[in-house]
Amino acid sequence: MAVEGGAKCVKYLLFFFNFIFWLCGLALIIIGVLAKVPVNTSAIIKGYAGSPLLLIVVGVIIFFIAFFGCCGAWKENQCMIAMFAVFLSFIIIIEIGAAIVGYVLLGTMTDVLNKGFDIMVTEYNETENSRILDTLQQDYKCCGKNSSVDWLNSKFLAPNSVPDSCCKNVTQNCGEGAIRDTSKIYTEGCQPILDKFLKKNFLMIAVTALIIAFVQITGIVLSCILIQAIRNGYEVM
Fold this sequence. Notes:
mainly alpha
């Protein structure tokens, strides 16, 4: 039997909140994609791409669970509503886990970046380091770890030179003798820029997760109320 009165209001509220869940799932997918660490940085910050990827996975799951919850609320199906509440509980647990992992990684990020850039600069032109670092320097408009001076004693470059990827307008050998020439090259280091970029993304993820978790908990409460109302056998109008 269907519900009436206050329980019927809860039914439509739950349907509305499921629409919000659907939007939340979509938001998680978008935020996860935007916060995803570029593949080119993986050699420097291995393991840090996990949280955004987890957000994308959770977003896809919520996207489909929300549709499941809408059907359960509209048809007043106890089983579907109960499963919806259980699924949401699991999602919240996963989100809490992702938040803890992100918080732990955030505390070690600066050290990881420092070590990563030290290796990349020191071993430039070895393995794929040059390709990755060149891409970083062009994408983030930076040069070296802390500044362009980091290339001063590089055994792979001519004296007082930087890689061509440090140049504002990249041409062959544009970095030769230009280690302090601010008109030709970017002099700001990549490590502070990337560190700021990653921490900003983690903050964005944390705020988004908190807002969505609040909405999810509200949905679980409404689900429990509606299930109880259906069990009590209220008559439909």
